[in-house]
Specification:
This protein is of the alpha+beta class. The chain folds into two domains: 2-84, no CATH class; 105-149. 58% of the residues lie in helices and 27% in strands. The protein has five helices and six strands; from the N terminus they run βααβαααββββ. The chain has helices at 7-23, 27-42, 47-63, 65-84, 86-102; strands spanning 2-4, 44-46, 110-119, 122-129, 132-139, 142-149. The chain has a four-stranded antiparallel β-sheet with strand order 3-4-5-6, with helices on one face. A hairpin with a 2-residue loop joins strand 3 and strand 4. Helix 2 crosses helix 3.
């Protein structure tokens, strides 16, 4: 699978990869980032380069660096690319699965909604409606269906 980068996405990806490269001392990681930069210049990433780009963009997006440096347009360009990379596609699929499970609650009367801290950066949202109970886990890896009870 390969992902083409438009000019704005190339600009953000290039700058973020260069910033990470400047902070990395490990030779293998430096070589990997160098290969990523070459692929970004070509305007298309695949394989190991796509994996490296995913890591670089995830770091920049999670820390808020991308939005702070490139504004909303740069952030949207980075998100558009991230969503087409394997990790972004997995997050999208997980969200679709959770939405499908939540559809079971449509038209029911909500009796209870609660949030529990499961662990560092992970929470569980439980929704009870007309005898049906769903738990959705929210964490760094996205949203996932926890449990379904009747």
């Amino acid at each position: 699978m390969s992902v083409r980068l438009d000019e704005e996405a190339r600009e953000v990806a290039r700058a973020e990869a260069q910033a990470v490269l400047a902070a990395v001392r490990d030779g293998d990681r430096r070589a990997r980032l160098g290969a990523l930069l070459a692929a970004v210049e070509d305007g298309e990433v695949a394989g190991d380069d796509a994996e490296a780009l995913e890591e670089v963009l995830a770091l920049g997006l999670q820390t808020g660096r991308v939005r702070a440096l490139y504004g909303a347009d740069g952030e949207q360009a980075a998100l558009k690319v991230f969503r087409r990379l394997p990790g972004g596609r997995e997050l999208g699929a997980a969200a679709r699965d959770v939405n499908e499970a939540l559809r079971a609650l449509e038209g029911r009367t909500v009796e209870r909604v609660s949030v529990a801290a499961v662990g560092p950066g992970t929470h569980a949202v439980t929704i009870a409606a007309d005898g049906l109970e769903l738990t959705v886990k929210l964490g760094p890896g996205g949203a996932a269906l926890g449990t379904v009870g009747i």
